[in-house]
Amino acid sequence: MKRVWLYLTPLVTIAAMTTTNVVYADDPWSIVRDILSSTRDIIVFDGVQKADNRSAETQTPLVGDWLVRHSLSDPTSMNPYTASDAAVSEIHAYVFEALLNQSPEPPFESRGHIALDYPTVSEDKLSYAFRLREGVVFSDGVPLTSADVIFSLKVILHPEVLAASLRNYYGSVVAAEHDGEYGVVISCKEPYFRNDLMLGGFKVIPRHFYDPDDLLGGVEVSDLVDGSWMEGPQAEGVHQFAERFNQDFSRRVLGSGPYQLLDPDADMVTQQKVVLTRDEDYWGREIDSFPQSGYVEKIVFKIINNTDAAFIELTNGDVDYLDLSSLEFKQKTWDPEFQRSFMKAIRYRGGYTFIGWNNARPLFADKRVRQALTLLTDRQGMIENLLFGLGEPVVGPIHKFRPEYNQSLEPYPYDPDRALDLLYDAGWDDADEDGILDKRIDGELVPFRFEMMINSGNQLRKDIALVVQSELADIGIDCQVRELDWSIFLQRADTQDFDAIVLGWTGNVRFPPDAYQIWHSSQAEGQGSNFITFLNEEVDSILEEYRKEFDPQRRVDLYQRFQEILHEEQPYTFLWKQRLATSYSRRFRGVNWYPGADRGSIGEITMEWWVQPPERAY
Predict the structure, then answer these.
(1) Which residues of the chain have pLDDT under 50?
(2) 97-246 CATH fold
(3) Closest CA to 78 of 203, 168, 224
(4) Smallest Cα–Cα separation from 100: which of 184, 195, 204, 200?
(5) Top-tier CATH class for 19-74+255-348+583-615
(6) Fewest CB atoms within 10 Å of the CB: 49, 60, 391, 477?
């Protein structure tokens, strides 16, 4: 096989490196379905048999080979703070590091990384003191010090940096001060129960790379928080920094992590690839207590914006790691040739899929209409027919396996008759007898006609939209499906330029949730994540109180009520939590799947993978 697009010929074929002890079956899906129904845990399939999800490898890992991963779209930007789509987040996981990291095993405790250890926290929970590890360097060899940590906070808190979604987690920060070259003390105006995670979890970026003219050198974190930076001679430079930072780092990137983007021109090609190269001088490689830092020489994200084409590339040996569609998993991965070449891991995604209704649009302003649209969405039918049972319905945004999830709420059933009653109650009927429901709004007869937006290349979201379109047409609602390129899709979402949208949020079972970013009314402005414009005073109050509450049971109680409100209001039609099937080449050793593994943690998982020299493809 030859990966021409990478201009390198593999050394061996997949057939030459695979195992021969795979068990096959005449009716593999029946066997697999029984195994899947027996547990919600991660399952690894070796053929049709359940295998250990932890490696039993005893040999010392060796450096070499590449890992080629599929990505559905180009990253919108490589900017560490303004870009937040899934594609760039997966790349950043290899490039950037934080003060703390989290154990992949329960209870998922926070551990020192750039910082030596967990911070010293004041009794009133308003001061967090970190001691940095000496000897940390960025990939260009420049030492990482407290100046870089404080600079990173300045960038996040700069009101003109286009990072509103990220900034909302740092709203309690009021100051950050040096405690020598390797100490940082961060002060907060009010308690936030996740401050240890957030202050220890942001990407630390190099000041010398992202601000070479030291434009932020004349301001303090406190100046950016209270707005005093706008007065005095430093204002022009601070404005200029934001302009440069927002615009100049869509392709250039530098961090302290174990992989780096060496040459953006050669290694980042639109609609083709992003290539990360192992940093042979990575500072953390010799620290025994650290997670593994990568054995493959290159991590290649191959951009294929069509899932069917991506599967063909997998079977041709041009992709090593691919998240399968449910149809592919059920129908295309059980033949002997495929099983000889690939293993499969099944896990629940941390996030959820939804249809978002733009609450600011007159069509969707009435909750009875939104309730009716959910009643017209056959979620269970789609789970069976589109996901082949690889998912379960959800009623809200909280991870279904966490204690905060409200188990008492029943999903809305598929009930067209009840939906039609609600629509009539809300004033919708076919007054002009043209087959489309109408309502008089501001004196004008308005037909119930709208557009549902999806991103191109995602067949599942397209199927969801088409199923809903068909159901709505049966009762007189005209829904047109609009398929857009990912970058245009995101721009339309950010600017609230849509009627309805099929999308998904990521999540993680490891950490207690904080729904402020998506559901607080303040996040409906400035391209925040509340792009459906859901405004509710009680929800705002709950989200604000929740952030200040350190009693876990009280937080659970608050979020039970929060979910009750969303269930009544139906600003989203919450669809499901999907069970994700991932296929990966058998040549990789040291493969471990951890509880809570999701897209955001795949970087840390694949850091452990390695390949024996005789089995290498490169």
Answers:
(1) 1-20
(2) Dipeptide-binding Protein; domain 1 (3.90.76)
(3) 203
(4) 200
(5) alpha beta
(6) 60
